[in-house]
């Protein structure tokens, strides 16, 4: 079995090295069985019928057409938490940079580096770059997933009072969260009370533009906003008005766009959150393991559009996997294809996620082309694969 992998972004070598020798890298997207991607947008790409899987080496999947992939039986993975520490550390830097005018001070020194009496000038100039401390200040964290929980915990260690809001927090993330984070159930309490607000939610229809004029109206004057999640979470025009009025003292973001890049009191970075050697390695390793487990054994871990399913390795004659719609009466139809010719189904697992489901069947007979055609013809079946 030869498997063709296409990388839409560079993927760290230590991940690629985990792929077996039977895998080869292709530059041709249309030819690929599996795709590895970071932030490259896939929305305008034609998805071929042979494409089985996409692994996003990272967290956010807003660059991938998830529904279109599900409809074509393309399983999309991400790498939960693999770059969270990288982002957390950059957010800590941003918290400090929002408080001390490191950028202004640094630029002043650079501009005056040739002055012979610079050491003397510094003592006169420094008042222009004075700031405040974060100790004792209130930080609101919106979204307590892999990144938000880490940011909340480290901010407590830096002496901040931390307010956390996440109505859908996972059990894992909640376990990792310090009990000293104040549990907020109405996001407006964060807007009203906090000196710093940081957002760590995915870009969804429900979160787009959430930081807008209504939210600013509730906030303290001089609030500092940190956005290391996605630019679309913030309404740019409302942000510019809030910066103009002084409602927002600083907007720290990893997502510059033409509307806010270069705007007064905006400090923007070129999407650096996950750009550390450690995060890139962690994401690549997790993504490549996910692809290998799916392509070689049909097992799904960390998918965002199909359910997680693990049936280990096949010890019977053959394994057939089926991506299908989450509708009644599918399993009896699947087993029927094999049982009517005396084929024993020795193992079966089926799980659903939203409108889609995924089933694995281990069987005691070699499936024929007719069997596969029969399975594929069942209404609601999206993709059938013979693994072994
Ligand atoms: N700057 C960068 O380089 C990076 C940015 N990101 C961005 O950060 C986001 C978060 O990443 P992770 O923490 O790893 O993801 P995660 O999936 O672990 O956490 C997201 C959290 O947001 C919560 N959430 C969803 N809707 C919400 C709402 N309306 N209000 C409050 N909470 C809500 C979820 O319940 C979940 O706990 C990603 O989706 C991505 O957009 C992620 C990694 C790197
Ligand atoms: O993981 C994420 O959501 C990120 O934003 C990181 O993006 P990147 O892999 O650095 O292009």
UniProtKB/TrEMBL annotation:
- EC number(s) on file: 1.1.1.399, 1.1.1.95
Q: Which GO terms describe its molecular function?
A: NAD binding; phosphoglycerate dehydrogenase activity
Q: Which residues does UniProt assign to the signal peptide?
A: none
What CDD domains does its record include?
A: ACT_3PGDH, PGDH_like_3
What sequence ranges are listed for the domain ACT?
319-388
Q: What pathway is it annotated to?
A: Amino-acid biosynthesis; L-serine biosynthesis; L-serine from 3-phospho-D-glycerate: step 1/3
Q: Which InterPro entries match?
A: ACT-like_dom_sf, ACT_dom, D-isomer_2_OHA_DH_cat_dom, D-isomer_DH_CS1, D-isomer_DH_NAD-bd, NAD(P)-bd_dom_sf
The UniProt catalytic activity note for this protein reads:
(R)-2-hydroxyglutarate + NAD(+) = 2-oxoglutarate + NADH + H(+); (2R)-3-phosphoglycerate + NAD(+) = 3-phosphooxypyruvate + NADH + H(+)
Q: Provide the alphabetized UniProt keywords.
A: NAD, Oxidoreductase
Entry similarity comment: Belongs to the D-isomer specific 2-hydroxyacid dehydrogenase family.
Question: Any idea what this protein is called?
Answer: D-3-phosphoglycerate dehydrogenase
């Amino acid at each position: 079995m030869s498997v063709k992998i296409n990388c839409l972004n560079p993927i760290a070598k230590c991940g690629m090295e985990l792929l077996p020798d039977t895998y080869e890298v292709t530059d041709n997207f249309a030819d690929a069985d599996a795709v590895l991607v970071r932030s490259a947008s896939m929305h305008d790409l034609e998805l071929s019928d042979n494409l089985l899987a996409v692994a996003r080496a990272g967290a956010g999947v807003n660059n991938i057409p998830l529904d279109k992939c599900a409809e074509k039986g393309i399983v999309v993975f991400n790498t939960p938490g693999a770059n969270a520490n990288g982002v957390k550390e950059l957010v800590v830097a941003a918290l400090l940079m929002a408080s001390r005018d490191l950028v202004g001070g640094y630029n002043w020194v650079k501009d005056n580096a040739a002055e012979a009496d610079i050491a003397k000038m510094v003592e006169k100039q420094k008042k222009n770059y004075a700031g405040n401390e974060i100790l004792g200040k209130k930080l609101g964290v919106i979204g307590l997933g892999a990144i938000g929980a880490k940011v909340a915990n480290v901010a407590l260690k830096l002496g901040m009072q931390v307010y956390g809001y996440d109505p859908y927090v996972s059990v894992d993330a909640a376990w990792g969260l310090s009990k000293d984070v104040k549990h907020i159930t109405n996001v407006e309490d964060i807007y009203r009370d906090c000196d710093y607000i940081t957002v760590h939610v995915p870009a969804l229809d429900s979160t787009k533009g959430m930081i807008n004029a209504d939210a600013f109206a509730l906030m303290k004057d001089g609030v500092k906003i940190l956005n290391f999640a996605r630019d679309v979470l913030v309404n740019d025009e409302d942000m510019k008005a809030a910066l103009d009025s002084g409602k927002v003292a600083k907007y720290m973001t990893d997502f510059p766009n033409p509307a806010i890049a270069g705007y007064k009191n905006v400090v923007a970075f070129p999407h650096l959150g996950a750009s550390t050697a450690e995060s890139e390695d962690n994401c690549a390793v997790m993504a490549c393991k996910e692809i290998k487990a799916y392509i070689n054994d049909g097992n799904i871990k960390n998918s965002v559009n199909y359910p997680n399913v693990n049936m280990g390795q096949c010890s019977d004659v053959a394994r057939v996997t089926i991506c299908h719609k989450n509708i009644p009466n599918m399993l009896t139809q699947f087993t029927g294809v094999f049982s009517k010719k005396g084929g024993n189904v020795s193992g079966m697992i089926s799980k659903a996620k939203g409108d889609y489901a995924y089933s694995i069947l281990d069987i005691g007979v070699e499936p024929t082309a007719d069997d596969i055609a029969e399975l594929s013809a069942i209404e609601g079946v999206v993709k059938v694969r013979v693994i072994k």
